[in-house]
């Protein structure tokens, strides 16, 4: 009986964030497919779906969509946790349409900005010419954008510690590594923060203090 109740709750939660779990289901299928590829074929296959400079110059719309449906490295389970913690929460709060707008804005704009920076580095001779074919695939830019917009989900003053942690998590790698992907991730967070107009009318911000008090009875 308890198991049945638990399964009903899980299913209700999944249905409350359909976009998140449909996307996660697609990623599961594509991850399984990648595991059945040889290493050589996998690299070439993913490169053709990568948002690198070469593919963006020739097939921008196709690769911007395709790159969000595959993951490099084949680690699906950590993303299942991250999607549940961040994407599902954002979709339930914003609604599927607004959540999707944040995801698309972060994924597309951060990709174009980071690849533009890489192109400029190639022109200046700072990065090698071969970088035009760099493998750049995955869902992390959209995730970072959602992590950013969730700042507004948390009530003041709890919002500010969350914001500091987010800026540290994505800002420190940018300051120390300075790779185009670090730039892309930090840019995605900024884009998420810039999506404030989308959160208006989405209900009261979550107050952790009220949640703790309710649990204590």
Automatic annotation (TrEMBL):
Keyword annotations for this protein, in alphabetical order, are:
Membrane, Transmembrane, Transmembrane helix
Q: Where in the cell is it found?
A: Membrane
Q: Which InterPro entries match?
A: Rhomboid-like_sf, Rhomboid_2
Task: Check the record and name the SUPFAM superfamilies matching this protein.
Answer: Rhomboid-like (SSF144091)
- Recorded topology in the membrane: Multi-pass membrane protein
Keyword Membrane assigned to the entry: answer is yes
Per the UniProt record, which residue ranges are transmembrane?
Answer: 21-38, 99-119, 131-154, 160-177
Designated name of the protein: Rhomboid-like protein
Taxonomic classification, please? Bacteria, Bacillati, Actinomycetota, Actinomycetes, Kitasatosporales
Give the matching Pfam families: Rhomboid_2
């Amino acid at each position: 009986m308890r198991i049945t109740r638990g399964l009903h709750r899980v299913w209700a939660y999944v249905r409350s964030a359909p976009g998140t779990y449909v996307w996660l289901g697609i990623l599961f299928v594509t991850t399984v497919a990648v595991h059945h590829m040889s290493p050589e074929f996998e690299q070439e296959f993913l490169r053709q779906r990568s948002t690198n400079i070469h593919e963006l110059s020739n097939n921008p719309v196709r690769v911007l969509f395709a790159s969000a449906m595959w993951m490099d490295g084949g680690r699906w389970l950590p993303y299942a946790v991250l999607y549940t913690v961040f994407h599902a929460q954002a979709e339930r709060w914003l609604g599927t349409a607004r959540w999707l707008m944040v995801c698309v804005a972060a994924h597309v704009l951060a990709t174009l900005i980071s690849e533009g920076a890489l192109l400029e580095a190639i022109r200046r001779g700072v990065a090698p010419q071969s970088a035009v074919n760099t493998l750049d695939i995955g869902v992390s830019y959209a995730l970072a954008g959602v992590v950013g917009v969730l700042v507004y989900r948390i009530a003041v003053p709890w919002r500010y510690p969350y914001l500091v942690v987010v800026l540290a998590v994505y800002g420190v790698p940018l300051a120390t590594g300075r790779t185009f992907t670090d730039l892309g991730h930090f840019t995605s967070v900024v884009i998420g923060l810039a999506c404030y107009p989308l959160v208006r009318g989405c209900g009261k911000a979550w107050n952790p203090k009220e949640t703790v008090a309710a649990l204590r009875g």
